[in-house]
Specification:
Shape: elongated
Order of helices and strands: HHHHHHHHH
Number of strands: 0
């Protein structure tokens, strides 16, 4: 009986060795597979999130939340995260646009009130805006630039709020000192609007609409195309409206 058991142990030895090797190999393979799958799984999560971070970093300094593509990942949670972020970005953008329109409306009303101080200049900013917009469209400028010119023209004389009425409404010739005060209104207008976020694109029109092609204008004496086209358009239209409407010092031509 003992001999039979010894024979069975001897016979099963090679099988046990083989099974041991199989178990070891299977265990190693299972660990490798688990490690491989965990790497793939982590990459499938990390890569989309890293892409979001890169997208956000690229938008730094623009103060605008970027939108992301709808399907950046096959993982439902990642897609839901992106969708939620896009909704938030859209809501922020809508709020920003609304606030900007409110600012423009307020400052435009202020400019209209400024025009209304003098019956000779009532409606001046609105007329300049309408004609400047028509001019820009006739020049086939892009719609975004046309809109900038439209609003910039509405705001172009806002700096006259810092010029005394007795100078603006004077019926006689201005003294040099009085004209020097008039020449300050583009800079005053820029300083009024500069702190308002989103008004940067209008500042060149407000500040530079009295620059002349030959460099004889103010406040900087710029020449030719040193002056942005929007400011040049508003300058010409502003002069046209001044010439063709009655003013305290002469009738309209």
């Amino acid at each position: 009986m003992l001999r039979s058991l010894q024979d069975m142990d001897a016979a099963s030895g090679p099988v046990q060795a083989i099974l041991k090797r199989v178990f070891v190999i299977t265990g190693v393979a299972a660990m490798a597979a688990a490690l491989f799958l965990s790497v793939l799984s982590s990459r499938s999560i990390v890569e989309p999130i890293a892409g979001v971070v890169r997208h956000l970093r690229a938008s730094e300094g623009t103060y605008v939340l970027p939108e992301f593509s709808e399907r950046p990942s096959s993982i439902p949670e990642i897609r839901e995260l992106i969708t939620s972020f896009n909704r938030a970005a859209l809501a922020v953008q809508d709020g920003r646009d609304y606030l900007r329109r409110a600012y423009v409306g307020f400052v435009s009303s202020l400019a209209s009130a400024l025009d209304a101080r003098d019956r000779y200049t009532a409606g001046h900013s609105h007329r300049v805006s309408v004609m400047a917009t028509a001019t820009a469209r006739h020049m086939e400028l892009g719609e975004a630039e046309v809109e900038t010119i439209r609003i910039g023209a509405l705001l172009h004389d806002i700096g006259k709020i810092g010029v005394p009425d007795q100078i603006l409404q004077k019926t006689g010739a201005l003294t040099k000192e009085e004209f020097d005060q008039i020449k300050q209104h583009p800079g005053i207008g820029k300083r009024i609007l500069e702190p308002v976020g989103g008004f940067e694109e209008y500042l060149p029109i407000v500040e530079l609409h009295h620059e002349n092609w030959d460099g004889s204008g103010y406040p900087h004496g710029l020449r030719g195309e040193e002056v942005p086209v929007g400011a040049r358009i508003v300058h010409v239209v502003d002069a046209y409206d001044a010439i063709t409407t009655d003013r305290p010092y002469r009738p309209g031509m």
